[in-house]
């Protein structure tokens, strides 16, 4: 503000100077006059801004041709007169000027103004700029946080469309658009910091993409046949003894035959990768010497995270990721990405300025009625404003890129309810869901919603439209409660075991709309679920306050690791029960990497910052017989599931016969061999019999023939003592063959016992028995 303007300023009730016309209580940031500490690098004068850092002399800027506004990002191509170069295009709606900044290996910066503006897109073609060139943007505009304007050209910004990123975010004070260490913190975000951030932030990399995926063969596994395996690229491969050390923790490591061999031996059909978009670490973690291990803090929606690359970060990570996808496809395994489009790593108003905030803060983020503040439906400080066309375009362009150019087969959307919000409330007719439904590329891939966020009305399990599947946390809770003896009755369990028709039998949705899981990356591992009742997150440095307290866990009699052989045997039996229940349930099962071999995090149920042995998969567990047996059981039940279509139903059970001479497709039995009555569903029960008829499977095969299969009886018993269970006789079955018994440690060979219908079978304590109807 000029001295003349200062003379015209008035004061608010607190005595702070206010620009004419500004509401009382909202002081203009440039007129705040607290005492300036010498250590801040601030020069007193007409406004509060950080003194610029030393600017290195740059060579003469190259010629910038007009270029084109489409496509967005930095795209290498042949320009006019056959001259090769790179077209730069950036949407920055309210900006006053944009510079693309080119960086040499020694850090020398060349600034090139983009003078062409088409539909709020700044663009230009730079002849001679080739793949491997490191770059960023400086965007000029007003600094007025009170109205949501936070432009600061001193900050080098990452291109939202960058295909590769070189460098890591370390978050020193210079990368903040405001004075992070300003003495008066309640106005710190209004004081602009003009120190140059370029030496401290990663740069985008120009990438040449000429790969058309002609030779790639996508598995295209039907939803009903899918088995998802959630894994962390780094954690899954970091300790694998058969992967070369230089490849561990990388995309190339996951592509290695040793890693893929484990997946194929198990029988999973898809890997769901924890976030692989370029992400940054939070300041509070860096201050404690920790890092964001899970990666739910995205900053680059087109770039594979450079930290997982074994081949280099100057664009090589793109090719390495593609080779990983090809290797998995060759093994018949689909690749699903866990994506975080609900928020970015820039956090709230006190967060760093890395990309979108400095490009157009008001255009990209949801702001409160007080535009200085951010609407936060994610618990991470900000929420992307998906209703805005340019934000919706950013997300859908990113999704299409990962499908068409990077080869992935689907997405799991973190906090998907935040993306489905219109102006405030969750709206299943929102622009985001409408665009996905009609997009010719995206509507054909696998779409998984985490159907909640942290805002009001954010819990939306069962509400997403057709085409979408959902993480079903009601399945998780019911199965956990049954096996720890905490269910008041078995009504909810009955729905969960058979596809959750109460949630998904509408609008043409199918049982595979339910992604069933007992554990996920967030929470206890399966082994910890039966070894701990309380979280033990002290290593996170947050006083054990982080992570949920609602674990629905049972430690089998001792908290933590035990030397008691009986406790350990019971824990292993519970693991077999939980895994078998999951893999026999109707719906899409999701396993978490390492649960099949007894991985533990020592009771940490929020290991998001544990990039160490706590978070990594310990492959030495397979050297121990008891954990090898658990892995063998998992593979065996998955083979049963793959072999028998009655366990992979494409339609909900009706409870009625599908043919005049057929049995009902589903029946429930009590311990005495009679069919359960309505009253039985409302009574406490530890034993449940589930009959699945293979004669009455709706639908036909690819040749139009009826689908038939064996029929099965599953008996789930969560009680602490053995019970007698009368096997249903005619017309259900004359004889049964025992296929699976989770009370047994050794699962190498099937039990093979044959029993007559009407026989009273002794069901071992805490076990699952699976019996096949014998001919």
TrEMBL record:
It comes from the Bacteria. This is Glycogen debranching protein GlgX. NCBIfam families: glgX_debranch. SUPFAM superfamilies: (Trans)glycosidases, E set domains, Glycosyl hydrolase domain. PANTHER family: GLYCOGEN DEBRANCHING ENZYME. InterPro entries: GH, GH13_cat_dom, GlgX_Isoamylase_N_E_set, Glyco_hydro_13_N, Glyco_hydro_b, Glycogen_debranch_GlgX, Ig-like_fold, Ig_E-set. Residues 1-54 are annotated as: Disordered.
């Amino acid at each position: 503000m000029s001295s003349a303007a200062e003379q015209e300023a008035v004061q608010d009730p607190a005595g702070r100077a206010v620009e004419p016309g500004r509401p009382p209580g909202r002081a203009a940031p440039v007129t705040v006059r607290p005492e300036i500490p010498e250590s801040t690098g601030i020069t007193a004068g007409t406004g509060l801004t950080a003194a610029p850092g030393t600017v290195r002399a740059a060579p003469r800027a190259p010629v910038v041709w007009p270029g084109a506004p489409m496509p967005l990002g930095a795209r290498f191509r042949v320009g006019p007169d056959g001259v090769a170069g790179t077209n730069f295009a950036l949407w920055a709606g309210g900006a006053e000027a944009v510079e693309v900044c080119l960086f040499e290996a020694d850090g020398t910066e060349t600034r090139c103004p983009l003078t062409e503006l088409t539909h709020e897109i700044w663009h230009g073609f730079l002849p001679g700029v080739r793949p491997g060139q490191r770059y960023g943007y400086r965007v000029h505009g007003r600094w007025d946080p009170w109205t949501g304007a936070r432009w600061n050209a001193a900050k080098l910004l990452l291109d939202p469309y960058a295909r590769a990123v070189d460098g890591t975010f370390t978050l020193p004070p210079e990368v903040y658009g405001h004075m992070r260490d300003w003495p008066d913190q309640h106005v710190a975000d209004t004081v602009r910091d003009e120190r140059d951030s370029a030496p401290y932030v990663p740069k985008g990399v120009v990438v040449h993409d000429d790969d058309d995926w002609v030779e790639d063969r996508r598995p295209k596994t039907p939803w009903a046949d899918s088995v998802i395996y959630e894994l962390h690229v780094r954690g899954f491969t970091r300790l694998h003894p058969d992967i070369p050390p230089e490849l561990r923790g990388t995309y190339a490591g996951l592509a290695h035959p040793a890693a893929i061999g484990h997946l194929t031996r198990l029988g999973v059909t898809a890997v769901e990768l924890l976030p692989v978009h370029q992400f940054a670490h939070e300041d509070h973690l860096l201050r404690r010497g920790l890092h964001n291990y899970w990666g739910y803090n995205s900053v680059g929606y087109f770039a594979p995270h450079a930290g997982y690359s074994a081949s280099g970060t100057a664009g090589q990570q793109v090719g390495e990721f593609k080779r990983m996808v090809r290797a998995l496809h060759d093994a018949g395994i689909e690749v699903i990405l866990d994506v975080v489009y609900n928020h970015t790593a820039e956090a709230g108003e006190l967060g760093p300025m890395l990309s979108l905030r400095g490009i157009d803060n008001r255009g990209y983020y949801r702001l409160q009625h007080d535009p200085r503040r951010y609407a936060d439906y994610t618990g991470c400080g900000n929420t992307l404003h998906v209703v805005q066309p340019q934000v919706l375009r950013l997300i859908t362009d990113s999704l299409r890129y990962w499908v068409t150019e990077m080869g992935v087969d689907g997405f799991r959307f973190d906090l998907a309810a935040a993306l489905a919000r219109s102006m405030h409330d969750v709206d299943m007719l929102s622009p985001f869901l409408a665009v996905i439904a009609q997009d010719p590329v995206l509507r054909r891939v696998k779409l998984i919603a985490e159907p909640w966020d942290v805002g009001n009305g954010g819990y939306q399990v069962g509400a997403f439209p057709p085409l979408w599947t959902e993480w079903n946390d009601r399945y998780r809770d019911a199965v956990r409660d049954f096996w720890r003896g905490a269910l008041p009755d078995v009504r909810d369990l009955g729905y969960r075991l058979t596809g959750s028709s109460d949630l998904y039998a509408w609008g043409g949705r199918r049982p595979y709309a339910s992604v069933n899981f007992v554990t996920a990356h967030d929470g206890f591992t399966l082994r910890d679920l039966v070894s701990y009742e309380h979280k033990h997150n002290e290593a996170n440095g947050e006083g054990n306050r982080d992570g949920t307290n609602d674990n629905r866990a049972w430690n089998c009699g001792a908290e933590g690791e035990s030397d008691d052989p009986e406790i350990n045997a019971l824990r292993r039996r519970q693991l077999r029960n939980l895994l078998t229940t999951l893999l026999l349930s109707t719906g899409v099962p999701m396993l978490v990497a390492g649960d099949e071999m007894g991985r533990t995090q020592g009771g940490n149920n929020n290991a998001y910052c544990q990039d160490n042995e706590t978070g990594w998969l310990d492959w030495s567990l397979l050297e121990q017989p008891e954990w090898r047996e658990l892995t063998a059981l998992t593979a065996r039940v998955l083979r049963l599931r793959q072999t028998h279509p009655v366990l992979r139903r494409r339609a909900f059970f009706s409870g009625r016969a599908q043919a005049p001479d057929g049995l009902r497709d589903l029946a429930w039995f009590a311990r005495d061999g009679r069919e359960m009555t309505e009253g039985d569903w409302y009574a406490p029960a530890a034993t449940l019999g589930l009959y699945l008829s293979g004669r009455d499977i709706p639908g036909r095969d690819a040749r139009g023939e009826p689908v038939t299969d064996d029929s099965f009886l599953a008996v789930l018993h969560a009680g602490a003592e053995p019970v007698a269970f009368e096997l249903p006789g005619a017309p259900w079955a004359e004889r049964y063959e025992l296929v699976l018994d989770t009370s047994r440690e050794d699962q190498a060979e099937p039990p093979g016992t044959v029993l007559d219908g009407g026989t009273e079978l002794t069901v071992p304590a805490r076990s699952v028995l699976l019996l096949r109807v014998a001919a």
